[in-house]
Design goal:
- By secondary structure, the chain is an alpha+beta fold.
- The chain has a single domain (about 5-145), classed as Aminopeptidase, CATH 3.40.630.30.
- The protein is about 30% helix and about 20% strand.
- It is built from 6 helices and 5 strands, in the order βααβββαβααα.
- The protein has helices at about 15-25, 35-45, 105-115, 130-140, 145, 155-165, and strands spanning about 5, 50-55, 70-80, 85-95, 120.
- The chain has a 5-stranded mixed beta sheet, with helices on both faces.
- Strand 4 (about 85-95), helix 3 (about 105-115) and strand 5 form a beta-alpha-beta unit.
- Helix 1 packs across helix 2.
- The radius of gyration is 18 Å and the shape is globular.
- Bound molecules: coenzyme A.
Amino acid sequence: MYFKVRAATKEDCKEVSRMIMELAVYEKMPDQVKISHEELEHDGFCQNPFFECLVAEVPEEHKSNEGFTVVGYALYFYTYSTWKGRAVYLEDLYVMPEFRGKTCVAVLLAKLKKCKQCVRLQLSVLNWNTPTRDFYAAKGAQDLTVSEGWHFIRFDGQNLDNLANEAPKD
Ligand SMILES: CC(C)(COP(=O)(O)OP(=O)(O)OC[C@H]1O[C@@H](n2cnc3c(N)ncnc32)[C@H](O)[C@@H]1OP(=O)(O)O)[C@@H](O)C(=O)NCCC(=O)NCCS
């Protein structure tokens, strides 16, 4: 194994930010990325961090064609199931194309599994991303949209502001 998986530090945020964009390009939504590495540095490394992150790193002699040594990441945070208890939500999982198929992702997921004795790991994946859907299915994940009919709901922008503005004033 020529890579190591370790907890990201503040100094890794530029590299994580680069891979967030690579993943967004893969997901065909690069315009949606508004976060800067400075925000990652703050939000991930403040007193009550909003997320945790693992990175996969290769030694200099195995660096990528473009010269990168941080070649994959898993960014996650904790949630809570009122039915099952402690849970972890995997926001992003990414390995650079030239480093795929080398068990890097297995190590990322194994380390993630040890997080705070969580009983559940949840994530979302795009409908058309069948290689990754097949990958999760092969690892034993259930597709909850198929099996239980859950929808993934989001408020943001003006609709989120409206929620606060529409509330009766105290
Ligand atoms: C998803 C991703 C992180 C997986 O990393 P990877 O390095 O390609 O994974 P590996 O090739 O090492 O595969 C790990 C295991 O899954 C299996 N697998 C991989 N792709 C598979 C597929 N399409 N169907 C079934 N099994 C698959 C491998 O055989 C391997 O099995 P093993 O652990 O028993 O040896 C990587 O492909 C990636 O970054 N994809 C693009 C980004 C993405 O879709 N991220 C997830 C967003 S939700």
